[in-house]
TrEMBL record:
Belongs to the sigma-70 factor family. ECF subfamily. Keywords: Sigma factor, Transcription, Transcription regulation. Residues 129-176 form the RNA polymerase sigma factor 70 region 4 type domain. This is RNA polymerase sigma-70 factor. One of its GO terms (biological process) is DNA-templated transcription initiation.
Amino acid sequence: MSFFQKSIRSDEDLLASLRQGSEDAFTIIYKRYHKLLYVLAYKYLKSTYSSEDAVQQVFLKLWEARSLLMVNVNLRNYLYTMLKNHVLNEIRNNNSAVEKNYEIVQSVPEYEDELLIKIEEQDMMSHFYQAIDHLPEQKRQVCLYKLKGNLSNQEIADKMNISVPTVKTHYAQAIKILRAHFERLFLFLLYLWNSSY
């Protein structure tokens, strides 16, 4: 399986494979959601050890219940709910835990969704730049100059000693490659495509 194929496996596909006992699917899910769950756990537990333990318990339960999972379940919400329940139990059982932490977790404030979005955006951009690194050299350079360096087509052409039309061609082809392999990034890539001309 190629880098791109691994990158675009949907949660639904991963859940279907996990139900069949796929360790590869479990590993991808773990890598995809570990950081998100850890950050959320730490917001309330304020302990590196307790937060990491909470995340490990969530993934252990996920693996143990793999054959019982519904294919159409929202994986992120499912993991978040398991984590929330674990954190609530930790707070109830911890005599030193302050009451407001218990109330915060119960209420699930709106900024929680904002945090989820920010972390997912960061992960998405990380995957995006990893994909750029796998492009052919000139296409990779053009993308990095344009997206990270914010250079114009003329500036890129001067730096790479190629023509402006060649810069546009490399960039257009690169975006087409990335768009084909990143369905979740389609709107973002479409924005980049439109703003490049």
